[in-house]
Task: inverse folding
């Protein structure tokens, strides 16, 4: 039996049959390590987002776990917007939403349709015309390693159009400078979907797996690889991203793997599933179904195979669309086009 079939089994009771209006106490957490693969820029007002925090959890961790370090921050929106847009792109490819006509849905606009899988899953707010809360919960993510080891300031010459620094006899003295995150910086991150249906579970997971560019909204130049460590179905919310990063810091320090930079990917990923399992065990929630590390590989392979198959993807999205439209009609009065 495939893992997706197992998850879907009636007695597993992991998914709601329909989109729920009121919170039902079901959560699925996608446990990720986001890794920079080129030079992404997560910035506000021209500078990278940095914050000082305790290095480790501090309780019984490494020697310097109580030290304070500066960490790079990947704000919430910088994570969700690209993933949301990856989902909308897929909906458009499959004709679930369109740019005009009956299935029109326009992002960040009063023409949000208020009934497609994207609007109902990621939410919207349109002035006085109503709002739907996002069912996808994300928090800021923090680099494991310190800022000083995780960035590089690139200087670039602000050339004139003809390609030199000199124009009409005058040499330009201004140089640009842009601070970039370097490759192989790791951001532990949990994406949470509340009250999942089978379709929304796969939809959000697919969006995470297919998104590879994050950073400044306008350019999205930075490659980021999302390593999905596993998924956890629980009865409530779990540890924060900061706590996850601090526990990762402790675990890597303890294993002597924090001193050589960049961190070795396999060390990070191996530690991540172990750390996540330990942290999950400390949470006052029921663990309904959890796969981490090696155990999660069959699930990942099945989901990748699903998205490689156009027909199965179409069937999934069509079924999801039917559910979100039924929800909109029943609870929001948005069933038909205005
Ligand atoms: Zn929509």
Result:
């Amino acid at each position: 039996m495939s893992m997706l079939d197992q998850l879907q089994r009636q007695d597993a009771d992991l998914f709601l049959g329909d989109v729920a209006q009121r919170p039902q106490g079901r959560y699925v957490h996608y446990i990720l390590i986001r890794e920079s693969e080129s030079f992404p820029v997560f910035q506000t007002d021209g500078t990278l987002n940095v914050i000082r925090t305790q290095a480790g959890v501090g309780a019984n961790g490494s020697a310097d776990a109580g030290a304070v370090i500066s960490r790079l921050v990947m704000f919430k929106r910088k994570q969700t917007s690209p993933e949301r847009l990856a989902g909308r792109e897929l909906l458009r490819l499959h004709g679930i939403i369109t740019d005009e006509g009956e299935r029109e849905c326009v992002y960040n606009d009063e023409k949000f349709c208020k009934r497609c899988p994207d609007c109902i899953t990621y939410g919207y707010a349109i002035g006085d015309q109503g709002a739907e809360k996002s069912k996808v919960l994300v928090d800021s993510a923090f680099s494991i390693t310190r800022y000083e080891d995780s960035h590089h300031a690139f200087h670039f010459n602000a050339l004139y159009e003809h390609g030199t620094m000199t124009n009409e006899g005058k040499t330009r003295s201004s140089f640009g400078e842009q601070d970039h995150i370097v490759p192989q910086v790791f951001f532990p991150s949990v994406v949470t979907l509340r009250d999942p249906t089978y379709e929304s579970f796969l939809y959000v997971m697919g969006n995470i797996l297919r998104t590879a560019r994050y950073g400044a909204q306008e350019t999205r130049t930075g490659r980021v690889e999302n390593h999905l460590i596993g998924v956890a179905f629980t009865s409530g919310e779990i540890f924060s991203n900061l706590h996850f990063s601090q526990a990762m810091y402790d675990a890597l320090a303890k294993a002597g793997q924090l001193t050589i930079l960049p961190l070795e990917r396999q060390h990070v990923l191996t530690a991540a599933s172990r750390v996540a399992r330990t942290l999950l065990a400390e949470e006052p929630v029921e663990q309904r179904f959890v796969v981490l590390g090696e155990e999660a590989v069959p699930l990942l392979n099945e989901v990748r195979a699903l998205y490689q198959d156009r027909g199965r993807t179409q069937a999934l999205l069509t079924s999801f669309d039917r559910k979100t439209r039924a929800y909109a009609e029943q609870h929001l009065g948005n069933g038909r086009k205005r």
The CA atoms of residues 15 and 185 lie 34 Å apart. Residues 310-332 form the longest helix (23 residues). Residues 3-158+171-332 form one domain.
